[in-house]
Design goal:
This protein is α/β, with parallel strands linked by helices. Helices cover 48% and strands 14% of the residues. It has three domains: 6-285, Rossmann fold (3-Layer(aba) Sandwich); 315-410, Four Helix Bundle (Hemerythrin (Met), subunit A) (Up-down Bundle); 424-472, no CATH class. The strands form five sheets. A four-stranded parallel β-sheet has the order 4-3-9-10, sandwiched between helices. Strands 5-6-7-8 form a four-stranded antiparallel β-sheet. A three-stranded mixed β-sheet has the order 12-11-13, with helices on one face. The structure holds one RNA strand.
RNA sequence: GGCGGCAUAGCCAAGUGGUAAGGCAGGGCUCUGCAAAAGCCCCAUCCCCAGUUCGAAUCUGGGUGCCGCCUCCA
């Protein structure tokens, strides 16, 4: 059931029809993190966005190959290593572990490969050598620089003109560079830094080159999607394009997909600004599915505001979606079979239409915000159906299937009560509620209400319904 | 200064030519011992100005405001 998918391509600044390099297959490279500090909310956005994109593409029948790198050789890690007196690779190992644990908690499916710089030095050196051989790079005193002047299309992704870049340079230019806009492919080793042997002496890779080398190794030339935060457009992705395309003579990626920043009071969240919201902390306080709901409530290219209490606000709407699914699943157990009435059929048709709209939304540049909007339509449709007395198995099943698949499997915003405590709690609740029902029958509402209120104080919400009491945490 | 983007109800947020999705909050009602949940109804003409068009939130030009990148950054 493949549909036409449209994707906004940063390179062309237009929405384009997605045509994969190979029919039925999708190759994806997403820039991962530099593991030198705790994972923050900003890291969660591209991860969850790509998780949804990949789940969606798989659902449509594409075979996906997803690579996400770890830049584990880097100035910041080295600095941290010197501060702590711990080997750089141990620092990165620690934060990679932390990152992956957070992503697991968020329900992000693992990529197929998580290549690290430190394990691909050979490939990197080979790529640099090729660039030197072709005249795109030059070595000076153990450093190797990429010559931007040798790549005519330099600036095509970020729409920067070389002239402007040269003038705009606010930092001190390394005198070894021939051109102020040139950038390092290889850096000569300084004492105490991790270093590897190379044709230019001991040293380490510069930033950018690892992604060119590793994407080439795992995905080959001209793969489908290249993703990451939009703060990577320049210089990182611009430089990747220069390196890779100068080396292979082919486009690096077919579609460049950049996600927006998470902001705090209109200001980007970033490590250097120190306005970080720890992902670990959020995961301790809120359900992962709610975090995903929040992250997916806005189109991936827009910036997304975060503030204290934001998730609390979103929780109400999110709960409605979850409650609808939960109740639907329960109803399904006792649903009626039989002839479909005109009303049943009409509801069924509406649900069918909504299911199509969800697919349309996701097919149009992965519009998760719109998809969620449609899923709320599904909730209203099904609740209204039940309110009017509808109880046909086929209809309820359809509603459940839609919510389960799209809200559950693809978007991952459902939390279907798996958090409900097993055994003892269930038993105790059953007992308490049975007693309370007894009191209510005796019209001892004062005591019944007291039980309900006190349970509420413990965080247990009791709802009295025609089918008997229900409770949730 | 250069480049990119955004501006839709109290808040969040879809919507790229055909007359404003959805969520939260708010008001009214139904159900109900009460409450909760749920349902029904109500609640915007889209930053400003000028154009193009039979018709624009959607296109063009000009403003204003905000954000991102140009330095490490998801």
């Amino acid at each position: 059931m493949k549909r036409e998918i449209r994707v906004y391509n940063t390179l062309t600044q237009e929405k384009e029809v997605f045509v994969p390099r190979e029919p039925g297959k999708v190759s994806v490279y997403v820039c991962g993190v530099t593991p030198y500090a705790d994972t923050h909310l900003g890291h969660a956005r591209p991860s969850v966005v790509w998780d949804v994109i990949i789940r969606f593409l798989r659902h449509l029948g594409y075979e996906t190959l997803h690579v996400q790198n770890f830049t584990d050789v880097d100035d910041k890690i080295i600095q941290r290593s010197l501060e702590e007196g711990v080997p750089a690779l141990e620092i990165s190992k620690r934060y990679i572990k932390e990152y992956l644990a957070s992503m697991d908690a968020l329900g992000v499916q693992r990529a197929d490969y998580y290549p690290k710089v430190s394990e691909h030095i050979e490939e990197i050196i080979k790529l640099i050598q090729g660039l030197v051989d072709k005249g795109h790079a030059y070595a000076v005193e153990g450093d190797v620089f990429f010559s931007v002047a040798s790549f005519a299309e330099y600036g095509k992704l970020s729409k920067q003109k070389l002239e402007e870049l040269r003038e705009g340079t606010r930092f001190e230019v390394d005198p070894k560079k021939r051109d102020a806009a040139d950038f390092a492919l290889w850096k000569a080793a300084k004492p105490g830094e991790p270093a590897w042997d190379s044709p230019w002496g001991r040293g380490r890779p510069g930033w950018h080159i690892e992604c060119s080398a590793m994407s080439l190794k795992y995905l080959g030339e001209e793969f489908d999607f290249h993703g990451g935060g939009n703060d990577l457009i320049f210089p990182h992705h611009e430089n990747e394009i220069a390196q890779s395309e100068a080396a292979t003579g082919r486009p690096l990626a077919r579609y460049w997909v950049h996600s927006g920043m998470i902001t705090l009071k209109d200001t980007k969240m970033s490590k250097s600004l120190g306005n970080i919201v720890s992902l670990k902390r959020l995961l301790e306080e809120y359900p992962p599915a709610l975090l995903r709901f929040y992250l997916l409530s806005t189109h991936y290219r827009s910036s997304l505001e975060y503030y204290e209490g934001k998730l609390e606000e979103m929780k109400r709407g999110w709960s409605r979606l979850n409650e609808a699914a939960r109740k639907l699943r329960e109803d399904l157990a006792e649903a009626q079979e039989g002839e479909l009435t005109a009303f049943d059929q009409e509801t069924l048709d509406n649900l069918e239409r909504y299911a199509d709209e969800v697919v349309d939304a996701l097919s149009d540049d992965f519009n998760t915000a719109m998809a969620l909007g449609v899923l709320f339509d599904v909730v209203r449709e099904i609740n209204s159906y039940k309110h009017k007395g509808g109880f046909h198995r086929q209809v309820l099943q359809k509603g459940w299937d839609i919510l389960q698949l799209w809200a559950g499997e693809i978007l991952g915003v459902l939390e279907l009560g798996q958090q409900r405590q097993e055994g003892l709690t269930d038993g105790l609740m059953e007992l308490i509620l049975a007693i309370r029902e007894e009191l209510r029958r005796e019209r001892n509402f004062a005591l019944a209400d007291r039980i309900r209120d006190q349970l509420a104080e413990l965080g247990v919400v009791v709802e009295d319904t025609p089918q008997g009491p229900r409770w949730k945490v």
